[in-house]
Amino acid sequence: PILTTPPPRVSATTATYPLLTDLFYAYGDGASAYILDLNPANVQTHLDDLQNDRIQYFTTHHIPTSPSLWAAPIAQDAIAIIAHPSTNLNNITLDQLRQIYNGKITALIDIGGVGGELIVFSREDGTSTRAELERMVMGNRRITANARLALTDEQMVKLVAETQGAIGYVSWGLLNTMPDANVIILRIENIAPARATIYDHIYPLSNTIYIVGKSEPQDSIRPFIGWIQSQEGQKVVMLHYVPLLMPMLPQSN
Questions:
Q1: Model-level pTM?
Q2: Which residue of 30, 37, 82, 226 is surrounded by the most CB atoms within 10 Å?
Q3: Domains of the chain
């Protein structure tokens, strides 16, 4: 379908921006006006924008528990744990990941790596990627104050690739938009993030991407969301992320 009137303002967290861009291009036949409506920011900024009617909907991995919001799933994704190639890391456990991010593990040798100090990178507080890491890995433990901050997932990949001994985390789907990224993607509990392991929720850090609003849409965004969840829309999701529906998976996976 081709959009003939501007939709309600829809935005995206930085980690879901590539997905929403893909979807708008496909649904709007590449109309740049709709892409300009996108304004990536962290989940707390978008929540404030939503409550003050500066946007009507946004896409995110993390749904805040308060206030009560309407949400619909549109794709699947995962947190990929990445490291500098010099670390020679391949696999870590969830417990090791937790101890890395609460500051208890500080040396590469303690997790089977090569080198000296482990340089930890994190997203800033208020981002959906960090909130999901805290939910799935940290529980009630705080991320170490010694972690160096990356302001976007793209910057996270760049910093980890450039820093000896570095480890970080990023959206798996967003990482797929950066094929030349010079980082190692680690296995977690000996399971690698891949379309099949994320779809089946075998990979421990699998999660869901939602479109969120104050209430269920009754306006022109409703058919857009329906299209995203259809087989046609899910084919677009598969460009970089993981679909909701099994029929969209390639036979090779």
A1: 0.89
A2: 82
A3: 10-76+207-248 (3.40.190.10), 77-199 (3.40.190.10)
